[in-house]
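Help needed: design a sequence for this.
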């Protein structure tokens, strides 16, 4: 009996375990070897974990090993396979471990399904090609070092073919400076940030048509890249995408590209032409800056915004065209680019020597004249309010600039490196000048600043070698870092009492600074905070306190302005631009030499001259013998007859054609006597039938005036019956008029006026009469019998049907929700499942025990 009980109990336990216990874990990894490859098998998939370093040459890694698909290459699997020159990784591989090809120093070519650790890798370091070459190195000295991981691609690797990727991740090929050839598969949709950053030897890349995104700095400094085609499906191109691609000369933007990003083609030295498709709507900040060979651009109608500095220092730009249907931009006859209403000057041609800015312009955009190396002078019209950053930067031969008193701000680097600029007057309307505003203006010797300035910005006058004297306006509180650094000839400076700080290096290397005129006391001077490297101010220069200016009575002047100058410090008072008169020709121009027109300033009486172009025509006179000779320069010219065949020259004897060449020679042709026409009458003369010369005037006539008056609407007269001559001509004299048709309510009337002299008449229309007023209504009541209005009605009640409708029960029986034994009934998770198992086991054992007890009692009784 005990044996039977044991058998039953064992069966129950086995049953419960089979039903409720978790299934047995998968088989452990198996390590195998085939040829050069050591691999493991797990879940029917092979992972290469090691490779014999004796492997050499170009190798195609098998897609199966031992009948199992190769899906992974483990960490350091091929490390130190130094004889491996080429490797092809099958598309079956989905992951590659870090450092899988570490120290494969002879590898020249790789064909791999993706870049980095897996197809999904999009962020560093797992998305980098270098990830599979990673190795740990020691950083530091012998006693103090750390272990760091480097991702350097071997310099031997020249060619990479990607076969099955969907994305080229962030920094995928960054700094692969030896790669010359990269093949991207058709399935790629995105090229990540810095994907090809610094691939200096890469000459060409084929971007597949399915790519929609190119990240920031994707091809940054690919200095050997010569051509690129951006497919129309690309909707986003990041900033600096082709920055400093110095050999890039051929760029194709297919229709569909909508955005040219910030600095996209910055520094592309070889870029000469670029066709912007009609799909582009935006050109980013400095998009084409520093592209000196770019000569022309056509802006299509689709472009609605051009960011500041888009064409900075495009020194070869000679032509800008804008589609006439563009709603946002236009050009003028000078080739200057404006916004549509010409309130902003966007960009001038780099080839311009001078230009006339229209009075509609309110702002000169950033970089508008940047790199216009032929611009000699500029007069900014009144109405301009802002001068943007870099506006006239690099205008190396511009010798004069007129800034009107409508300008309120001047941007950073606005006049940077304007070497020929000699003097500048900044009007009192200007409240701010940006950093490096006049820096490196090597020829600047005189500048007058606005009284509205409160700060001298950092490096504002840095390296202005010829600047000797400057007066800081009375409202300035700060002179910032390097404001006058390297102004090597600066000798005198006037400072106001409003000044509270001079930042470090403000006057560094101003080795000639010897005189500082300070309007306040020595005690006030000592309160000024002066930064480092200003020894020329604090130690070497002489300081003069409580200085008052003594101005000369005569005007000082330069080519653009006049002022009264302080005899002590050179400060300028009453500074203003010259007011020129209309000018006078002091030397007329001729065919021999140019003329001169002289203008005089109405205030200070200084003069300026303007050349009048040499005449292109000569003062010829005719010389007998068929020759012209100029009376000024003596030049000669052959006389050729030109006959005036359309007009006759006449006298009383005949008619002829004369030579009409200038100067005239008097030669006559086709001379003939007149041919008389019809005899003269009282109304018509006798004329020559050939030339219309009047041979005999019209005969004398005795007028015969009619007794009857002739008239029109306003006048009357007596007319000659023979020649229609008018006598007694006068205006009508009208009487008071007579109503010839009375007006009624239905019709207008007529009034007739008669001239008291000639009896002519005129009519005047009379308005209709107004309608008669209605009479008062009668007060006598009028009785009218009425019919009864009562109509018998039908009963309104209609029997109704019962409205109660039996309803179906709302409860719908639900199916029981099955539970999965594997998850413990879906409620308790893994731990509660064991409790259930134990309870059921106890119940089964109890039931079996009770059954056995009943069996034994029954057997004993029997």
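Sure. Designed sequence:
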């Amino acid at each position: 009996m005990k044996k039977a009980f044991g058998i039953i109990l064992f069966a129950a336990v086995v049953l419960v375990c089979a039903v409720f216990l978790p299934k047995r874990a998968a088989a452990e990894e198996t390590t195998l070897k085939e040829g050069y490859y050591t691999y493991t098998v797990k879940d029917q998939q092979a992972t290469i974990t090691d490779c014999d370093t004796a492997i050499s040459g170009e190798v195609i890694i098998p897609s199966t090993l031992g009948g199992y698909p190769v899906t992974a290459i483990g960490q350091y699997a091929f490390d130190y396979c130094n004889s491996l020159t080429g490797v092809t990784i099958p598309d079956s591989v989905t992951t590659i471990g870090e450092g899988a090809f570490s120290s494969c120093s002879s590898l020249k070519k790789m064909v791999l399904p993706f870049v980095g650790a897996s197809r999904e890798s999009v962020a560093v370091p797992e998305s980098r090609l270098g990830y599979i070459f990673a190795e740990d190195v020691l950083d530091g000295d012998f006693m103090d070092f750390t272990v760091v991981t480097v991702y350097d691609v071997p310099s031997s690797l020249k060619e990479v073919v990607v076969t099955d990727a969907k994305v080229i991740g962030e920094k995928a090929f960054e700094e692969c400076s030896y790669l010359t050839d990269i093949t991207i598969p058709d399935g790629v949709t995105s090229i990540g940030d810095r994907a090809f950053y610094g691939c200096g030897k890469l000459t060409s890349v084929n971007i597949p048509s399915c790519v929609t995104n190119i990240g920031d700095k994707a091809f940054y400094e690919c200095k050997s890249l010569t051509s690129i085609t951006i497919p129309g499906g690309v909707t986003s191109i990041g900033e600096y995408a082709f920055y400093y691609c110095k050999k890039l000369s051929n760029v194709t933007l297919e229709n569909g590209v909508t955005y040219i990003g910030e600095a996209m083609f910055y520094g592309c030295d070889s870029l000469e032409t670029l066709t912007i498709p009609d799909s582009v709507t935006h050109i980013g900040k400095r998009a084409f800056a520093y592209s000196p060979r770019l000569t022309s651009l056509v802006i299509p109608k689709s472009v609605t915004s051009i960011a500041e500095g888009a064409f900075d220092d495009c020194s070869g730009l000679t032509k800008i065209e804008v589609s006439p249907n563009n709603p946002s931009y236009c050009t003028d006859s000078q080739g200057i680019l404006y916004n549509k209403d010409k309130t902003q000057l966007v960009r001038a041609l780099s080839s311009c020597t001078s230009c006339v800015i229209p009075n509609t312009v309110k702002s000169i955009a950033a970089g508008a004249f940047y790199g216009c190396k032929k611009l000699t002078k500029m007069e900014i019209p009144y109405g301009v309010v802002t001068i943007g950053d870099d506006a006239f930067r690099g205008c190396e031969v511009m010798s004069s600039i007129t800034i009107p008193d409508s300008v309120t701000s001047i941007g950073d680097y606005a006049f940077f490196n304007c070497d020929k600029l000699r003097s500048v007057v900044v009007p009192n309307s200007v409240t701010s000048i940006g950093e490096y505003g006049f820096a490196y203006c090597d020829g600047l010797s005189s500048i007058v600043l606005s009284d509205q300035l409160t700060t001298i910005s950092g490096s504002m006058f840095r390296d202005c070698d010829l600047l000797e004297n400057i007066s800081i306006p009375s409202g300035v509180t700060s002179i910032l870092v390097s404001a006058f650094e390297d102004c090597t000839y600066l000798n005198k400076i006037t400072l106001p009492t409003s000044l509270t700080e001079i930042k470090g290096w403000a006057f560094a290397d101003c080795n000639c600074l010897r005189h500082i005129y300070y309007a306040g006391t020595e005690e006030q001077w000592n309160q000024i905070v002066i930064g480092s490297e200003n020894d020329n101010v604090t130690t070497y220069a002489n300081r003069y306190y409580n200085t008052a200016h003594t101005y000369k009575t005569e005007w000082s002047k330069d080519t653009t302005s006049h002022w009264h100058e302080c005899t002590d410090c050179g400060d300028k008072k009453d500074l203003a631009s010259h007011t020129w008169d209309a000018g006078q020709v002091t030397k007329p121009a001729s065919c021999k030499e140019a003329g001169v027109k002289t203008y005089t300033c109405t205030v200070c009486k200084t003069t300026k001259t303007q050349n009048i172009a040499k005449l292109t025509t000569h003062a010829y006179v005719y010389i007998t013998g068929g020759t012209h000779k100029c009376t000024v320069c003596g030049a000669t010219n052959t006389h050729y007859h030109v006959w005036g065949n359309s007009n006759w020259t006449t006298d009383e004897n005949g008619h002829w054609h004369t030579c009409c060449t200038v100067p005239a020679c008097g030669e006559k042709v086709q001379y003939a006597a007149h041919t008389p026409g019809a005899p003269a009458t009282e109304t018509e003369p006798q004329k020559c039938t050939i030339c219309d010369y009047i041979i005999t005037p019209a005969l004398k006539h005795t007028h015969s005036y009619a007794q009857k008056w002739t008239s029109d609407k306003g006048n009357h007269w007596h007319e000659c019956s023979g020649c229609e001559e008018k006598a007694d001509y006068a205006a009508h004299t009208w009487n008071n008029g007579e109503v010839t048709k009375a007006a009624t309510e239905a019709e207008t009337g007529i009034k007739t006026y008669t001239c008291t002299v000639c009896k002519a008449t005129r009519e005047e229309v009379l308005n209709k009469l107004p309608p008669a007023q209605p009479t008062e209504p009668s007060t006598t009541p009028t009785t009218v019998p009425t019919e009864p209005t009562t109509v018998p009605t039908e009963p309104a009640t209609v029997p109704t049907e019962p409205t109660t409708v039996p309803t179906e029960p709302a409860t719908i029986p639900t199916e029981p929700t099955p539970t999965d034994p594997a998850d413990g009934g879906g409620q308790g998770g893994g731990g509660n499942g064991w409790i259930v198992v134990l309870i059921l086991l106890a119940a089964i054992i109890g039931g079996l025990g009770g059954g056995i007890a009943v069996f034994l009692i029954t057997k004993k009784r029997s």
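The first helix runs from residue 2 to 20.
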